[in-house]
């Protein structure tokens, strides 16, 4: 480990830090300037972003004399405390510190207490939004103590899923979850207990939960022998989709086996499974477009609410920026987007070098000035942009002339 990761000595690190310090200082200043411009703009347009909602709310509820150690309620908060007899909070595991302070300010902190919180730390998904599951865990542990006024109620019964789903879930999580991984030990208290006995009476085939593991390296050997396709080159999403496709085809009965039987709640009868009965749940939508594409390729009808579309595709966005930049090159953002795209291929440092040629005015002015005054690799890139822009502009004009001619001909015919 020392050989691979800690080879540099202390002086080396100190020297790095000294070299980086002015850059970081500049960056910090930039962030501050950006933040104050952004705030000013939001105020002018009377708009708020998501975190503003929380922070302005907190500012309203805190007394002017409040400090981080002394969270004193303002008059507004005191009025709200009077108004609410109970404060109910759902998904408490995803509360962040600002929200927790807001809740404290509007609830009864001195009397018997009037806050009721429901949560499940196993479902904590908003850490990237500063959710603090520790707030939940701390209370979860403290409230179990008989000696304090607060009470913990374990809602262990699960009415959402069938017995085998719960058994499978408990089996997996008992093995992989503990305080270190997942903040909580998956013991008997944390287990999901089957409680919805509605299905027990009905004669139907039990769905067995399955865990499918994709071994990329093994597949690689197999595929290379079969058809020369390099398995490691395939996107992970594509690999997953192929496994889904195989499974779905088997359930539907396309692989020679009998279709999977399911219980239809509407008709109260058993029937063959159909595509519309199957849903794929994903932890995020990042891979969804690739999975949808692959399932379609495999002949499986599929629908997903994708925010992406033709105009959201990166290459289409770049081309639209290019057209905007040709129409009026003094639009900095479309111009920068084209310069950074593979059409020109500049990186951030090169873009900054060009900006330094003329720090004020439009970016286009800086670009033309840089091109006039410099030679070298970057100038070649700049020229590449001018040539591409010229070509596209000429093609565009030819098309416009053609369309104008066409309109004339059609117009004459009409006349
Ligand atoms: N006592 C009950 N009897 C029958 N069905 C119930 C009962 N309680 C809840 N359900 C059903 O179980 C499902 C899940 O219930 P609910 O959404 O209240 O659970 P939850 O624990 O709040 O879920 P989450 O963890 O996602 O917040 C719902 O379909 C609900 O109708």
From TrEMBL:
Family annotation (PANTHER family): ATP-DEPENDENT HELICASE_NUCLEASE SUBUNIT A, UVRD / RECB / PCRA DNA HELICASE FAMILY MEMBER
Q: Which reaction does it catalyse?
A: ATP + H2O = ADP + phosphate + H(+); Couples ATP hydrolysis with the unwinding of duplex DNA by translocating in the 3'-5' direction
Q: Which domain of life is it from?
A: Bacteria
What organism is listed for this UniProt entry?
Tigheibacillus halophilus
Every UvrD-like helicase ATP-binding domain range:
1-162
What Pfam families does its record include? UvrD-helicase, UvrD_C
Write down the InterPro entries for this protein, in alphabetical order. DNA_helicase_UvrD-like_C (IPR014017), DNA_helicase_UvrD/REP (IPR000212), P-loop_NTPase (IPR027417), UvrD-like_ATP-bd (IPR014016)
- Indicate the enzyme's highest-level EC class: isomerase
State the name under which the record lists this protein: DNA 3'-5' helicase
User: Which of UniProt's keywords are assigned here?
Assistant: ATP-binding, Helicase, Hydrolase, Isomerase, Nucleotide-binding
Q: UvrD-like helicase C-terminal domain spans which residues?
A: 189-415
Enzyme Commission (EC) number = 5.6.2.4
